[in-house]
Amino acid sequence: MKTVIKIFILVLVSNMGFSQVSKGNQLRKEGKLEAAIEAYKLEYTKTPKDWKNTYDLACAYALTFQKDSAFHYLEIALKDDPSLWALADSDLYGLIEDQRWPLIEENQIARFEKENGKIKQPEYAKKLLKLIIKDQALDYYIDQAKEYYMKNGNAPQWYYPLGAYQQEISKGDYILMQQLIEQYGWPKYSMVGNLAADAPLLVINHHKSDSVRKMYLAQIKQSWLEKEGSCMEYAKIQDRILVNEDKLQIYGMQFQYDENRKLEPFPIKEPSFVDERRKIIGLEPLQLYLKRKIDYNWNIEQKSKN
Length: 306
Hints:
By secondary structure, the protein is mainly α. The protein is 62% helix and 2% strand. The chain folds into two domains: 2-166, Serine Threonine Protein Phosphatase 5, Tetratricopeptide repeat (Alpha Horseshoe), CATH 1.25.40; 209-306, no CATH class. Helix 4 packs antiparallel against helix 5.
């Protein structure tokens, strides 16, 4: 049971963050998707040029599998958005097998390239971005389990089949990841863009087996050393390996619940020097990261060995 709860906690906190919450977003957070849709629609009538609200409306429709409405508002929201985020957003999972999705991909890639220059491996990028969506397909529902746990102190009964299904998804994503790497090679920022290149790291981090994380750790480290991969995802994976072995983490990237069901970092090796270690690999000070990520106040004075 201890292992199950640890996995539950690690999955729940993997995508958490704190930001300003609109009425629609608050209703969505509470699991009231139909009410959230109405709130987003009302805001849309007032401020139709608010692309973020329009995008959130599209996501809410996608989460309820109302595909026609989701595509309608998604196309409106993305007209002036040159990023690739929508192509990796798990909220849109219900749309990616629809015949209209390839056009969304094509248009968004074109907008991105107009702003940022050509992607050298666009087809690989699209497959990696879709892999991110699949890997995080259950994020909204797992967030609901997190809210339940924080209120009630136990995982909801429906989380357990959801967690088992998550493991099946992860297994399939890992196989697909291996196939893509065999076909195209290890993805690089300079070849597929920063967002797409992180796809294997997410799949590896979410895999149930630490043996997989250990197998790829050297490659992941080499990628960020060459500025072709994410230092943050490397730190998450390294710390997860340590936490799963009941060892002290070194970057402060993994969290647990305290006795009051509030999130805090797992114990950290030489905590007074954690910022020095984080700076070496390109991470911001832990105090800033923890405040933004889990609203935790980190007050340990930092020192340097150099």
